[in-house]
Amino acid sequence: MAEITVSVIVACAGSSTRMEGVNKQLVELGGIPVAVRSMLAFEGLDEVTEIIVSARESDIPEIERLAEKHGVTKFKCAVAGGETRQQSVLKAFAKVDKATRFVAIHDGARPFVKAEHIRQCIKDASIFGGATLGVPVKDTLKVVDGGLIIDTPNRRQLYITQTPQIFRKDVYVKGINFANDHELDFTDDCQLVEAVGVKVNMTISDYRNIKITTPEDLAIAKVFLETECAE
Hints:
Radius of gyration: 18 Å
Number of strands: 11
Strand order of the largest sheet: 5-4-1-6-10-7-11
Oligomer: single chain
Largest sheet: 7 strands, mixed
């Protein structure tokens, strides 16, 4: 069986519009910037061969400096993102080593992803062609139209999708080509491969793998960090 090699794309090019002026990627948690924590989550995995960051152009020099400072030895480069998440990820994907077999896309603002969950996601992607971390929804969800509830989906079938989302590279390329040919722009990388008929495995993660999007999320992240330090 061929060796599993994974190139990681860390998406850090968002505008942080809901963070009230705070650059969430560079804010420190326990002395380590959020984006660097996300990179370090992959640093110690043998399967990971390189880490590529998609970032705002103005942040690139600082991300390069911080990666070196905090010992992210698998950091390859940072590239300027595009106007959408998909465009930003594809710019980073252009830098992926041609020999790599799998590509993992991770939100830079998810600093608490666990190594054991990443490893399981890699294993599942090697079996199914694609896998994503996620957790079951806790609340009952409603479909609303015009302010009125029109449907209540079966909660047992609903999951909160997280990252990383990991795909066999040839499968991911098919998804990219399909999106480009049909001028589609997705908010989620699973949608790329779903569009070409690939069934993506849902690998169970935990509820700590949050995405820092608002100041409230940052406050929760600090509590998580304090809890880890106390354990």
